[in-house]
Amino acid sequence: MKNLLFSVFLLSLLFFFCTHVSDATVPCSTVDMKAASCVTFATGKDAKPSAACCSGLQQLAQSVKSVDDKKAICRCLKAGVKNFAGVQDKLLSQIPSACKIKVGFPVSISINCETIH
């Protein structure tokens, strides 16, 4: 559960910046499922994000339809990351480029989700 929540945080940050404004809200359960595979990289256990991590993030990015979706995903991820010891901010920030996903903002544990546009 902790790994899933942390992964969600990472993925949501990435995908929030990749999408355009719309009306849907992405549920935390979806975010959790898509981001779970990223935890081992974010904690330094893997040398690079897995294919499953990148694929999940790309799928999540495609599901974002609005700024509200981005903010909701960010909130889910931030809540989840608190449950994981060893998450490294420097590794989180590397996920977008390692997965070849453009997010348009710094991916960080300290991001203020309310400032996402």
UniProtKB/TrEMBL annotation:
<protein>
    <recommendedName>
        <fullName>Non-specific lipid-transfer protein</fullName>
    </recommendedName>
</protein>
<keyword id="KW-0732">Signal</keyword>
<dbReference type="InterPro" id="IPR036312">
    <property type="entry name" value="Bifun_inhib/LTP/seed_sf"/>
</dbReference>
<dbReference type="Pfam" id="PF00234">
    <property type="entry name" value="Tryp_alpha_amyl"/>
</dbReference>
<dbReference type="GO" id="GO:0006869">
    <property type="term" value="P:lipid transport"/>
</dbReference>
<feature type="domain" description="Bifunctional inhibitor/plant lipid transfer protein/seed storage helical">
    <location>
        <begin position="28"/>
        <end position="113"/>
    </location>
</feature>
<keyword id="KW-0813">Transport</keyword>
<keyword id="KW-0446">Lipid-binding</keyword>
<dbReference type="InterPro" id="IPR016140">
    <property type="entry name" value="Bifunc_inhib/LTP/seed_store"/>
</dbReference>
<comment type="function">
    <text>Plant non-specific lipid-transfer proteins transfer phospholipids as well as galactolipids across membranes. May play a role in wax or cutin deposition in the cell walls of expanding epidermal cells and certain secretory tissues.</text>
</comment>
<dbReference type="GO" id="GO:0008289">
    <property type="term" value="F:lipid binding"/>
</dbReference>
<dbReference type="InterPro" id="IPR000528">
    <property type="entry name" value="Plant_nsLTP"/>
</dbReference>
<comment type="similarity">
    <text>Belongs to the plant LTP family.</text>
</comment>
<feature type="signal peptide">
    <location>
        <begin position="1"/>
        <end position="24"/>
    </location>
</feature>
